[in-house]
Write a structure and sequence with these properties.
The chain is mainly alpha-helical and about 500 residues long. The protein is built from 23 helices and no strands. The chain is about 75% helix and about 0% strand. Keywords: Membrane, Transmembrane, Transmembrane helix, Transport. One of its GO terms (cellular component) is membrane.
Length: about 500
């Protein structure tokens, strides 16, 4: 039964996964994945929001109604709201997005519209912090990487919907041309709320809070299809226990834990790197200010800009969603490094074509830049897809939520800065501004090649040892020994079982 024996370190998750013909043949996996849809769609809500503002900038009735916002006024619509996000949870995020969508649709002046952006930005940020951790800790071990890989591509999925909604309302002759897309922003949040009603809590969180039996029930129901004797559940519990005990022994629930060990310091430096690699690449320029890019290459027709906005999001989604097919086959490093290098190459070509446009009237050069925009946006979303599972894998349980907060809040801070810089620098500098991003993306690829380890084929707890090395193994074994000694001293059964008699038998066998 479900226990905690000394041989647990000698086994790995892949050794106890039951053979299956295909996950779609199993009702319990359908049920679990439907619940996890709430977390996956949190990115879609953010993607809708980003593409929506792109579309609104191409709608004459919106720009005219708000007196043609530009420069810092345009930047503040994207950046100010995002700083409020990052420290609460999913359910509140859904309601904030719904409320913000209604306020936005009812806006009568710029300040009211800015207020709606603050509310929606806060809601999106709250959802994303909670969602990333829940996906990593609740997904079935056989699907964890694939499910996490689908998290980032749901961003352009939301963008596709927003892009074509604004294209559809372009022909409206009333303010509903921009009010209707704002109302429809609440749809993804409403779907999330429904899925959340069926979503259980994280087993790791429950065990950390002393609610072990509830965690066992969830693992048995959602990971083992009701089989209380499942060796998979047994090993998952053993690994969760070991990691939580190790973290408790080191008093790891403090932010200071980042500076106590070599492995944790490495995690801290990597989490300073990731937000820069994601947000300071030129992606925000395309995601939120595509009309500025298109204007710079001579594509000024509003309808054509809306069509290209929809096309860019479709390209990003197809590239990003494809990553789940190969991220576990090739490993994390290649799917992080190669896309970033290809992004750098596309920005170099963009820069060359932009420079040539200064001395030519050839409209083909402008469409060549548009092709590079598509190429860049596709590969940066492959990077996004691979980054999500990697960030979770580099975390210990105690640091996982803190790392997710660093990931989300770090992105938001970098995004805040670039949101003010992009609408000012792009019209002034044009292709010269892209040189900065071309250099940075090349540096990011080099840093990942030199410093980032591979985590392919490992469970979350096994990944901890990749970053902590022998020091991490010693900590886990020390926690294990102290845990058993404490229980023995108090006469506590070490099994933590569902059925006491069978648990005792398991512990006796595992100690032979």
């Amino acid at each position: 039964m479900v226990g905690h024996g000394p041989t647990d370190f000698d086994r790995r998750i892949k050794d106890v996964l039951p053979p299956r013909k295909g996950w779609w043949n199993y009702w319990y996996l359908w049920r679990l994945n439907f619940a996890l849809l709430a977390s996956i769609l949190s990115q879609a809500t953010g993607g809708y929001d980003g593409s929506l503002l792109n579309g609104l900038q191409s709608l004459p009735l919106w720009t005219g109604y708000f007196n043609h916002p530009a420069g810092a006024n345009l930047g503040v619509l994207n950046s100010f709201a995002i700083l409020f996000a990052g420290f609460l949870s999913d359910m509140f995020g859904c309601w904030l997005v719904i409320i913000g969508s209604i306020v936005g649709a009812a806006s009568t002046n710029f300040n009211m519209f800015l207020g709606c952006r603050i509310i929606v930005g806060a809601g999106c940020g709250l959802q994303q912090v909670a969602s990333a951790s829940l996906l990593s800790e609740l997904s079935h071990p056989s699907q964890r990487v694939e499910v996490q890989t689908m998290f980032a591509p749901s961003y352009p999925l939301g963008g596709i919907v927003a892009a074509w909604v604004t294209y559809a309302t372009y022909a409206y002759t009333t303010t509903w041309s921009w009010r209707l897309p704002l109302v429809l922003q609440a749809v993804f949040a409403a779907i999330q709320f429904i899925c959340l009603l069926f979503c259980p809590e994280s087993p790791r969180w429950l065990i950390a809070k002393g609610r072990r039996q509830k965690a066992i029930d969830i693992l048995v129901k959602h990971h083992a299809n009701g089989d209380a004797d499942s060796p998979l559940v047994e090993l998952e519990l053993a690994e969760i226990d070991s990691q939580i005990e190790a973290d408790s022994l080191a008093k790891a629930y403090s932010w200071l834990e980042f500076f106590k060990t070599k492995g944790s310091r490495r995690r801290f430096y990597m989490m300073l790197f990731f937000p820069l690699a994601r947000q300071f690449t030129g992606s925000n320029l395309i995601s939120y200010f595509l009309p500025l890019v298109l204007n710079s290459v001579g594509i000024t027709n509003s309808k054509e800009q809306l069509i290209l906005n929809g096309g860019v999001n479709i390209c990003a989604f197809l590239f990003g969603i494809s990553a789940f097919l190969y991220v576990d086959y090739f490993g994390r490093r290649p799917v992080l490094i190669i896309p970033m290098a290809l992004c750098s190459a596309s920005l170099v070509v963009w820069t060359i074509l932009g420079a040539m446009m200064d001395h030519s009237t050839n409209v083909g050069l402008g469409y060549g830049i548009v092709a590079m925009v598509f190429w860049f946006q596709g590969w940066i979303h492959v990077f996004d897809a691979a980054a999500e599972p990697y960030i979770q894998e580099m975390s210990t349980f105690a640091l996982r939520m803190k790392i997710v907060v660093m990931w989300q809040f770090g992105q938001q801070v970098v995004y805040y800065i670039s949101s003010f810089a992009n609408p000012v620098a792009m019209p002034e500098l044009g292709w010269r501004y892209i040189i900065l991003y071309a250099v940075l993306t090349a540096v990011y690829a080099l840093v990942m090649y030199i410093f980032f380890p591979e985590t392919k084929g490992l469970s979350l707890e096994e990944c901890v040892l990749v970053f902590d090395g022998e020091e991490g193994i010693e900590r886990m074994r020390a926690a294990e020994l102290e845990f058993e000694q404490m229980r023995a001293a108090h006469g506590v059964n070490v099994a933590g079982s569902l059925e006491e008699k069978m648990d005792v038998e398991h512990v006796e066998k595992s100690s032979v």
